[in-house]
Design the sequence.
């Protein structure tokens, strides 16, 4: 019988333990697989419901145990987890991980190590929480060429934007609620500044395009600057805010990739994906658009995805991810191919800032739909390139400190 080693006993690790050792999952009611050892930072600290003899603070107690053939890595720490995963694969142990930072940086290397040692590494939980998007992509690319990935990939920020919209609250108020509910970390930087999402987009894009997409090539903007006045203005214009991940492969072997706040129409399916839910769409040359919806944050959703991979390993029903290749080479074109209408809000303090702002706007944008209220200029532009809009806002930022803009996406599910 396979014994399992668990690296990490935080929110996700505890959920995984409960499903396996406490027999909460149907599969484990009928099959006697067990987590034998759990790596924690402090083995002397008691954890409710978990026997102390299972705990260790020495990774070698797990990695060098010949009875353990499967390692579950959910520590959330790059520095500790990356060497542990490498060593596990080298010792011919299968690995299941939820660590998106490690997979986004080292997917090709780790798949190569797994192939070399006759084992597998699965990472469904690294993207989309409870959505089985990785396996779906691997199935789809057997037939299709995929040229676009688009979606809401972070449950925390979607929860924040949804609550700001529904309850008309400011960003900081809702962030505190998200932290109290366990959706947001004490340090929310990875979520609200887009690093979590860009890593997920790196993984999805690399799989879809058969090329390593560097995280540094993903244009990323924070959602911290969205104010209640932006939420209300968007509503007046017929839109809602979402934090969108997008990548697209073009015919000339270039790609564009971004993680940015966007506005989408109230009546679209995507605009009604709220709270901690995620949605991911991919576009295949034969199948067309495929969309996947599910919970993207929380203990249960991520633990479910981890354990689903565990069962694939235990039942030997796993796809062979080691056949994946990343041989294609594409050049990033940034956001220069993006062409959309834009929402722009400029907060001004006095008449001088107002005059300078209006001058810059009218000298650079035609057919301006502009309004002014409570010290803020709001406008919707005609179609502009992403690069042009970014440059324009840089100019405006020399006039006033508070400038915010978002693309408007009309052609979305």
Sequence:
């Amino acid at each position: 019988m396979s014994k399992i080693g668990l690296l990490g006993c935080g929110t996700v690790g505890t959920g995984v333990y409960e499903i396996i050792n406490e027999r909460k999952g149907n599969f484990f009611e009928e099959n006697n697989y067990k987590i034998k050892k759990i790596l924690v930072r402090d083995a002397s600290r008691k954890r409710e419901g978990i026997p102390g003899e299972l705990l260790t603070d020495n990774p070698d107690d797990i990695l060098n145990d010949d009875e353990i053939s499967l390692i579950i890595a959910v520590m959330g720490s790059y520095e500790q987890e990356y060497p542990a995963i490498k060593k596990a694969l080298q010792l011919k142990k299968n690995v299941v991980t939820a660590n998106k930072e490690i997979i986004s940086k080292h997917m090709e290397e780790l798949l190569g190590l797994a192939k070399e040692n006759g084992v597998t590494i699965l990472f469904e939980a690294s993207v989309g929480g409870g959505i089985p998007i990785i396996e779906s992509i691997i199935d789809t690319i057997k037939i299709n060429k995929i040229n676009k990935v688009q979606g809401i990939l972070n449950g925390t920020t979607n929860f924040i934007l949804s609550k700001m919209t529904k309850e008309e609250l400011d960003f900081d108020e809702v962030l505190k609620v998200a932290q109290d509910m366990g959706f947001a970390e004490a340090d929310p930087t990875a979520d609200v500044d887009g690093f979590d999402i860009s890593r997920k987009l790196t993984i999805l894009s690399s799989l879809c395009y058969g090329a390593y997409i560097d995280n540094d090539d993903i244009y990323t903007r924070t959602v911290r600057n969205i104010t209640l006045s932006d939420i209300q203005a968007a509503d007046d214009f017929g839109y809602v805010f979402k934090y969108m991940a997008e990548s697209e492969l073009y015919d000339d072997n270039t790609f564009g990739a971004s993680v940015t706040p966007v506005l989408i129409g109230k009546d679209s399916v995507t605009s009604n994906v709220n709270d901690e839910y995620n949605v991911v769409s991919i576009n295949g040359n034969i199948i067309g658009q495929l969309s996947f919806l599910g919970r993207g944050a929380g203990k249960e959703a991520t633990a479910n995805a981890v354990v689903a991979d565990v069962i694939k390993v235990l039942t030997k029903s796993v796809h062979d991810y080691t056949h994946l290749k990343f041989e294609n080479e594409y050049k990033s074109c940034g956001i220069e191919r993006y062409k959309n209408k834009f929402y722009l809000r400029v907060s001004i303090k006095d008449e001088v800032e107002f005059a300078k702002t209006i001058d810059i706007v009218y000298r650079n944008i035609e057919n301006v739909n502009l309004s002014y209220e409570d010290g803020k200029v709001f406008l919707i532009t005609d179609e502009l390139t992403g690069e042009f809009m970014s440059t324009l806002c840089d100019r405006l930022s020399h006039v006033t400190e508070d400038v915010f803009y978002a693309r408007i996406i009309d052609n979305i599910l």
In short: The mean pLDDT is 93. The chain has three domains: 3-122, 133-297+323-332, 339-409. The radius of gyration is 23 Å.
